[in-house]
Every structure is written in structure tokens, then in C-alpha cells.
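hey can u run this one w/ flavin-adenine dinucleotide bound, need the C-alpha cells asap thx
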Amino acid sequence: MEIPQFTTSTTYDVVIAGAGPVGLMLATELQLQGARTLVLERRASYDLSVKAGGINTASVEALERRGLLPALQATRQSFFMGANKEVGAKMSPYAASVGHFGGIHVPARPVDQDDPLLRGRGQDGWYLMLPQVELEKILFSRALDLGVEIWRDAAVEEFEEDEGGVTVQINGQGKREVRGQWLVGCDGGHSLVRMMAGIDFPGTDPKITGRAATVEIEGAENLEEGWQYTSKGVYVYGPMPGRVRTVEFDGPPPDKNAPVTAEEMESSLRRVSGQDIRINSVSGGTRFTDNARQASTYRRGRVFLCGDAAHVHSPFSGQGLNMGLGDAVNLGWKLAATVQGWAPKNLLETYTLERHPVGVHVLDWTRAQVAVMRGDPDACALRKITTDLLGTKDGATHYVKQISGLWQRYDHGDDAMVGMTIPRIQMNDGTCLTDYFHDGRAVLFDLVGNDELATLAGKHTGRLRLVQATSKDAEVDALFVRPDGFVAWAATSGVCDVETLKAALARSLGDS
Ligand SMILES: Cc1cc2nc3c(=O)[nH]c(=O)nc-3n(C[C@H](O)[C@H](O)[C@H](O)COP(=O)(O)OP(=O)(O)OC[C@H]3O[C@@H](n4cnc5c(N)ncnc54)[C@H](O)[C@@H]3O)c2cc1C
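ok here u go:
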């Protein structure tokens, strides 16, 4: 793909540092909703190291709401059906499992498919398997189509905030500066934006070294496939051909970012597995730790943090990228509304309020997995009990809610549906509730033909779409759903409280 070069200097509504998946997702959300966006990326091309291998239901649905599901599915298919044909077949041993918790495979069979949160979902699994870089390519191309400017080889070096905006100094292809009303640090775990904004990053120190790579290996027949616990650590072989991961509990690596060599991967795998294997070459090698830290706030003045810049943790059971995409869709519409001048007071404050607790929870979810992976007798006992619990109906269902990302709930009152992601309800005309968000506006669904709702919606035209439809499956009469797909108000059992709807509309969309 042609990489656009620097264009003329202009003032942008939002400048984003970092064209990883989160920066790109945020850029598409902002530009779609009318905010002129520039993304600055220090790398000249994509990062090909092994990272996330899939996106969860919450992320898939966020992309589906913007019309990107066909692109995801096509890429997933071509990835598995093309050069990696055997991968599809290799995935089959995992089909009976919905995922893992510290390597403990959680069985699919007990999961309660009638749970209100899971109903209508999960037919294709709770994860769409797709290498992170493929998602980045989809988002990159989508961002360009929408008119986002993306400058590569353009590292944010410094910035200065004043009353009207942020001036950003860039290094790469010469030094220059740009100005934005707002700056968002999507610049990963070592975020310069976070450090320069003076935002604390408290948490727990790393105690493990993980390594992941795709390797050319001799002696692989001596390895067991899947997660293997030994007294020396954990190793994982497969499901992709040549994909190897090891985890050792002897402290963090001296230099996490030094290249991972074949020798290093080989000796780690030999130590952990005790098997006589040989690794001839590695590609996409990466190290990871259980460093678990979270920014104390996701905003300071005109500067925001999103994704790994706001939180880091071990990659176990695949949460980091997904949580970052969740941050991006939460912040995108709020910041765009602010740029457009119609954001209600305090809307931007709700970004940290809603997303910080999600981070707290996910960090603990990953810490607990390290606890069950160790080789000592205490950890072995804990692993056995955890395996039993995750094999029960409640355990497996709870697990699926967590890893799918569907558990996330923002505190908007007591109604069970409010604050949750939009349910998957099929309409009688064949559409689904999730089909109505392509243009990024909020949606008021009227499933019972209530004239008052139409009148109210008319007062927010431009920011709100009214959808009048019927559904034989719906257990709800009406829903007000924010642009990020979260339910902000619901009417059920024939009770339609227009006053609470007015308040919810005002909280999200401002004055009519
Ligand atoms: C081995 C491994 C496996 C993983 N598996 C999973 C998984 O299965 N599921 C999951 O959800 N997550 C997983 N993760 C985590 C996931 O990869 C990260 O959470 C994700 O990359 C975060 O995206 P991001 O855009 O926030 O940050 P990054 O992907 O780190 O992107 C940040 C971008 O900012 C750029 N940048 C940095 N500094 C500057 C600067 N000063 N100026 C301009 N640009 C800058 C960087 O070059 C980079 O492109 C895994 C991670 C690892 C290491």
C-alpha cells in the first residue's frame, strides 16, 4: 500500500500519536464523526512481531457496527485458506474449548447459550482469529478512505499544551510541528505522551519472561501440542505451524526489546520442555512479561490516553488489544462531539470514569492467570480447583462473558440492560439492531410504535437516528443506544418513561 507523505501543515481537531490498532480505530471513529484527524506513527511500516491473534466478540461487534465485518471475515478466510491452509485444520482441537485461563482450556459444552448476555452470539466462537497486523491493515485502509491523514516515520518527540490546543513536535523526515485541539496518546506501553503529560502509571512489577515466535524447528514430534505445564515453566506448541511460546518464572528479561534469537528460543524451550529440540530460525519473535500497570487517569487537560498507553499487562487470554479498541470507541464519539461543539458538559470526563474500572478488572484477570501457571505445589492445587470450576455451567459461562468482552458495564443505573452493549435482536424485516450504526450516530429504537419517541428523536436530528421496527424476539419496547453501541436507556414491559429518556438523551447528546 502506498504510504502517504507529509502534507501541508494545518491545524487538526485531533492529533493521535501511534498508528497501532488502537490509534487507527480511534482515528476512524473520529473522522467518521466529523473530527479532522492526523495520526503520527514513528515506524516506517507495520510491526510484524507476533502479537494478538484474535479479536473478541465485543471488538468484532464494534467493527461490525461500522460495516467492517465483511472485511474482517474475508481477511480471516484468506489468511486461513491461503498460505496458511493447514492452520484452519490445526485449530480443530481447540474447537471444543472456548478459550483458556492461564492455559486451562475452558470447555464449550457447559456454556449457557440462553444467558441474556450471550443469547444470539457465539455461533462462530467468541474470538475471530486474525493476526493483529491484518486488523491494522484493515483499519489503516478504512482510515485513509475516510480521509484521515496518517504520517509514518513521524515520531512525536515533545508537545506543549496551551488554552487553545496542543503543539506537537515531530521527528522523522526532518523536524516539524503540527497543532491539534486535542492530542491522544495511542503510543503503546512505553507511551511518551503519558510520561510527558505527567500521568502516573502505578501497578505491579514483572516477575516472568514470556517468549513467542514462529520457528523452524527440529524434534517437534517430542513436543505436546497446546499448553504444557512443567516444573520449569510453561510451553505452548501450535496451533499455527511452528508457533511456539514459553513462559519462565525467573524474573523479567534484561532487555525486553532486544531481538529474540533462535538460540534464545531454543534454550528456553529446551529448559521448559526438557526435550531435545533444535530451532534453526525464528520470525516475529517477541518477549512479554506480567508487568501490570494502569494510568491513574486517562485524561489530563487536552491530552488523552488510549490502549496500551493507558494500561499494560500480560497477554494471557487475549485482552489487551480488545480493551484498547473498547477505549477507542468509547472516546471517539465523545471527543468528536466536543470538537463539533454539541457535547454535553462532563461528557469527556466519562471516558476515564467508564474505562478505568474496565482496566482495573482486566489487570486482575491477567494477574490471576499467572498465579495458576506456576510449577509449585500451591499453584498446581489452585490450577486443579480452577479447572473444576471453569468446567461447570456457571464457571464456563462466566468465563465466556469475560473473554468475549461482553461483561463490560458502565454505571448508568439499575436497569439490567442499561450500560451494557446492545443486545443482538433480530427484526422482523431481517435486519439486526447492530446494523444501524454505520454512520456513527446514536440510535433510538422504537419497537412498539410510540409517537412520543419520534417527537423526541426529531429534536436531536443529526446526532440521533430513529429506527421504527418490530421484532418477535425482542423483550424490550424501546432502546436508546449511544454511538459506541452501549445502551443508555431502555423501556420494557409496556413502561416507557419519557422523562428518563429525555435525561439520557441530554447526558449523551446535549441540549435538543
Ligand atoms: C505476544 C503478545 C500476544 C498478545 N496477544 C494478544 C491477544 O491475543 N489479544 C489481545 O487483545 N491482545 C494481545 N496482545 C496485546 C496487544 O498486542 C496490545 O494490547 C496492542 O498492540 C495494543 O495496541 P495499541 O495500539 O494500544 O499499542 P501498540 O500496538 O503498541 O501501538 C503503538 C504504536 O505507537 C507507535 N509509537 C510509539 N511511540 C511513538 C511516538 N513517540 N510517536 C509516534 N508513534 C509512536 C508505535 O510504533 C506503535 O505503532 C498481545 C501482545 C503480545 C506482545
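The mean pLDDT is 92. anyway lmk if its weird
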